Amino acid sequence: MEYGISACVVFVCIGLMDLMPSGSWVPFFYDWAGYYESGVIDGYEWRVNRFRIF
Question: How far is C-alpha 40 from the chain's CA centre?
Fold first, then answer.
């Protein structure tokens, strides 16, 4: 039962991601390299967060 509930949650999340327009903000998945290239964050913050997914 637990695997079934988890699978349903995953499918709902994937479905919601498909509804979001391309290039829009996606919570929990930050584009650290993009922020650094656009100048929003500095090199230190990029190095600290580059491998963080959440």
Answer: 17
Q: Would you give the distance in Å from CA 43 to the centre of its chain?
A: 20
Token pair in block for residue 37:
């290239």
Q: What is the CA radius of gyration of the chain?
A: 15
Whole-structure pTM value? 0.45
Measured CA distances, 4 to 9, 12, 16, 18, 28 (Å): 9, 12, 18, 21, 23
Q: How far apart are CA 11 and CA 24, in angstroms?
A: 20
pLDDT exceeding 90 applies to what percent of the chain? Answer: 26
Question: What confidence score (pLDDT) does residue 25 get?
Answer: 67
Measured CA to CA, the distance from residue 15 to residue 29 in angstroms comes to: 16
